[in-house]
Structures are given as structure tokens and as C-alpha cells.
């Protein structure tokens, strides 16, 4: 039996988590409403509705369903990608409407048909986010058709044809009547990369001018993951835009600009890491050289803002002429050195910062030249750039085979959704509630692959439905004029889609208001709002039950593996560096770029998993601080590696090479052991004496360590910085294990796996 104190502790944890979820329900995303998308969706929905009603067409509902769902798929991107996504969704929804209508005619087939069809389309997530959205729409259309069975085979075929017609109208509206510039999404995505680079440069400028010591860490946490996500989004958008196109001018120049933004980001990471190592300000008759760095960084940010303008606007523009580089800092360092005001190591660090600034200016010049020629024809060979990673032509069945295991989150989610939706269909067939398909639609809408997002969406869906239902009751009590009602519904339909980016709960409020009033107009029954609320509550309860009891895997189980992957990506990044040093002092640029990108994505995955862990309702709780430290210093380790990668070379003497070789072997073994310890929840092995390996702060270093200190003091200092990041990671991993028994004992009983 649990102790009273433990129960109070557990109750306090649950109470705090519930408050956190309540805040998340009301949290607004810092974006603008998607007004254009809302108006398109309203037109795609209401034009078929009005036409079908006016002409008394039997498939008016399906015209509206096809138009609304297909417009919902249009998430922007290249013209080709949008057409493919919308067309594929239209076909899937039409087939689902036909099969659902036929299955509804034979109740004995409804249950197995639902299980197979919904599970199969939920499994479509193996092909990516777009396929997952298409699968959800196909499954939703199927259960609507199941709840509104066709009277005959001909009627079922008419439903499918009506879905296609409504979808065709939505596609014409989005792709023809409101034409787009094919490269506009790619230009905006690349411009967003330079905008993020400018923000980072401004942050570095503020921090280098005497900000608090912890400001460096805050800047890394705030900027690195966001910029990497922005770069990856631009890479995906540009790849989709160029797919199937033969023109070389604008697409290749955008590729060069994307790679320039990535290179500037890497240069800023290296600069930040080297600036942090300077320590207290260096003052003297010639002033603090860090002031010159701060000014150069602000000028760099202004240049990045110029690039945002040049990339976004159409037509040719005059090229800006930046006046910043590393020469002013180099001159200041020379004066300080001549006066004996800096040590040898400080001089090396400041000189390296000047080199990094000069490299940043060179990358900015390439980007400016390319951006000013963005709209013109390609008359010369563009500057060299790393090619976009194109999707390999793998077999269509390869992703399916890869996920046919219960270890696959996609398969587990598909089975959960299929079984829970089938249960909803069975309940509707037994109790026959009014508009029973609202129960199954709620299940399909709420259920997400992870527990935390499912719980949050359930709260938003239920609360939004209650509020929307009450609004529908109020509206129906005083407004029943069909023409005025149609005008109001057009506005609410536009609002519900426009507000999706801000808050899903707001979308649910206006979606409930729209569809309840529309159903009441069609049936003449003005009391459907309570039905919608009750059906949503039933669907929400089923969705949560299915999530919690059907192959649910807590984020506490997933997060250690994600964090271990990020640590191993750190290890691989350093391994590329060390192999390059052994082979002549210069790492392979292609391998380095790939390792850096892999590290960025792995770290983002770990941070996303950690956020899901915080939002997941749990009986047990783990100390958060060690986990946050592990995540933070995984990025810090990567930042030092980026600084090391910016070095033009390392000394090739035997002493330095021997010190580097044994340091690399020890670092590789320590990082692998740390990743394995985090993954399996065991204490990491003690760290070796890294200082002795490179001769740092050792009274009597051996020959290799002495060579390192004499021939490469800056490299020695940077390696020592890497050791410090590893030491913090090692300490956090040990502290996490020390905190686990206390948390577990306080949160008893802990025999329940999940909430």
C-alpha cells in the first residue's frame, strides 16, 4: 500500500501536469492567422454546398466534403508537390466514400472493413507527413460514408464521383484561379534562413559586449535548433520545387544561397565558441578588441537582412557593399601584441576570430552576388555548392517492410487507431446515437502517435466542441434565416481554417459551430448541438482509452534512446575531424557537412522527445535538470567541434599527431560509453585523464603533450574546452541516475506502466 506522503506527492505531480496542459490548451502560437487558406477553404466548401442545394443534387454533402478536405491538404510548397498531394487525397477520399457506403449497406461487413481500411490508411504515415494527412482524410471519409450508408451500388458510386467533383473544384481554386509563383515558397524559405542567421549574429553581438556568463548557453539553446530546423525546411521546400524541372538558373542559385546560409550559420557557431573562450575583456590604450567584433557582427546581421530582401523580392537589385571583415580586429590584435598586452594564447584566439570574420565576409559576398542575379538567366557556372540530397529511388514497399514490427511507432499507432475506431463503429451500431459518425471522427482526429499530443488534442477538442456547441445553440435560437445563416457559416468556415496555426482549440470551436449549424439547416432539427457535444465526449474517451491501453510506450522509454543517438552523432562528428587530422590535417568537407547535419537533426529529435516527455501525463516523474543539462551540453559539445572544424589545418609534427591520436581514441571511447550508459540507464565509466593526453595544466607533460603546448596552444585550448563539455555531460548522466531512485520511491505505486 502506498504511503500517504507518496500519494500526496503523486497527486501534486498530476495536479501540476494538469495545470501545464490547461495552459497549453490556451496557448497561442506566435504566428499570423492563415487568412488566405481560410478564405480558400470556405470557398471550396460553400460553393459546392450552395450549388448542390440549389440544384437539389443527391450528393451535395459529398461535394462539400471533397472540396473542404482537399483544400485542407494544400499546405503550400511547389506547384507540382501541391497538385500531387491534393490529387492523391481526392482519389483516396473518393474510393473511401464508395467503399464506406457499400460497407454500410451490410452491417456484418462494417466492423472488419473499418478495422482493415482505417488501419491501412493510418499506416500510410510510413511515407511521411503528407501521406499521413491523406490517410487521415481517407479514413475519416470512410467512417462518414459508413454512418450514411448508400441505398445502392449506384448511390455509392455517385458519392465517390461527388467527392471527386468537389475536390476538382478545390484544386482549381488553389492552383488555377489563385495562381502562384512556383519558386515563391522556396525563395521565402531560403530568405527565412538568412533572417535566422541575422538574429543569431545580433544575439552574438549583444552577448560579446559583457552579457552574463549564462547568456552564451541561453543563446545556443534559443538559436541552434531553430536555425537548423529552418535550414532543413528550406532544403525540403527547394527539393520539392526543383523536382521535375529542367531550368537551371533560379533553382541552382537558390541552392547556392541555401548553402551560403548554412555556411554562415556554421561560421557564427565557431565565432561564438571562440568568443566565449576569451574570458574577461582585454583593455588597454587601444581599447577592447571585442568591441570591433561586436560591430562586425552587427554589420554581418545587416548584410543578412539585405540578403532576406534580395531573395524575397522579384527583379534585379543593386548589390550592397558591406564594409566589415576581420581586418580591424587583426590590426587591433597587432597593436595589443606590440605593447605586450596579450598573452600568446589570447593573441592566437583573437587572430582566429579575425580569420573567422574574414571567412564570414567571403561567404556573404558569394551570397550577395548570387542573390543579385537570382532573377536573371544562368549565363555562367554558379559557385560550387553541395548538391541537395535527392530522395533515392527505393522500392515503394521498402518503408512498409521496414515498419512491419511492433517496435515501429507507425505500426503501433496504426493498430491503435484501427482498433479504437472499430470500437467506435461498433458502439454506434449497437446504440445508434444521432450522427454517430461524429464519435468516430473525434477518435480519428484526436489520436496521435504519442501520448502527450493525444492528451492535449483531446482537451482542445472537447473544450472547443463544448464552447462551439453552446455558441451553436445561441445562434440557432435567434437566427434561422437560410440566407443569413449561409453568410454566417461562410465566415465561420473561413475563421476555423484561418485559426488552425494559432490554436487547435479555436479551430474546433468554429468548426463545431459551422458543421452543427449546417447539419441543423439540412435536417431541420435545431437541437443537434448537445448531440455533437455528447458524441465528442464519447469519442474523446475512446481515443484516450485506446492511446493509454493499446501498445502505449511512454516517452520515458523513448527519450533515452533519442538522447543516446544525439550523443553518438556528437561522437561521429568528432570522429570525422580526428580522421581528417590523421590523414593530413584537413577533414573531408562532404563527410563533415553530412555529420554536422546528422548531428543537428538528432539533437532536434532528442529535444522534441524531451518536450513530449514534459507534456506526457505520468504517475512517475524524473528529475528534469540533469536531462536538460544533457541536452544543452550535447549542443555545446557540437559547437566546440564546429569551431575545431573551422581550422584550416593542424600541425603535422609527430608529437602533435601522437597527442591528437591518443586524445581521439579516448574521446571516441568515452562518448560511446556515455551514449550507451544514457540509453540503458547505467552509470558511465570514469573519464580518462584528458589533460595529461594533451599536456594541458600538467606540471611535467610527456613529449607529445609538450609538443602540443609548444606548437599548437590554440588547438590545445580548444580540445580542453571539448573536455569540459564532456565532463559536464558525464556528471549530468551520473546525477540523473542518482536522482532516479528518489523520484521512484516518492512516486509509488509505480507498477502501472504509464498513466
TrEMBL record:
The keyword Ribonucleoprotein does not apply. One of its GO terms (cellular component) is plasma membrane. The chain crosses the membrane at residues 41-65, 85-103, 160-178, 462-480, 486-519, 531-551. It is a multi-pass membrane protein. The keyword Oxidoreductase does not apply. InterPro entries: Memb_transporter_dom, YccS_N. Keywords: Cell membrane, Membrane, Transmembrane, Transmembrane helix. Pfam families: FUSC-like (PF12805), FUSC_2 (PF13515). Residues 89-247 form the Integral membrane protein YccS N-terminal domain. Belongs to the YccS/YhfK family. PANTHER family: MULTIDRUG RESISTANCE PROTEIN MDTO (PTHR30509:SF9), P-HYDROXYBENZOIC ACID EFFLUX PUMP SUBUNIT-RELATED (PTHR30509). This is Uncharacterized protein. It comes from Corallococcus coralloides (strain ATCC 25202 / DSM 2259 / NBRC 100086 / M2) (Myxococcus coralloides).
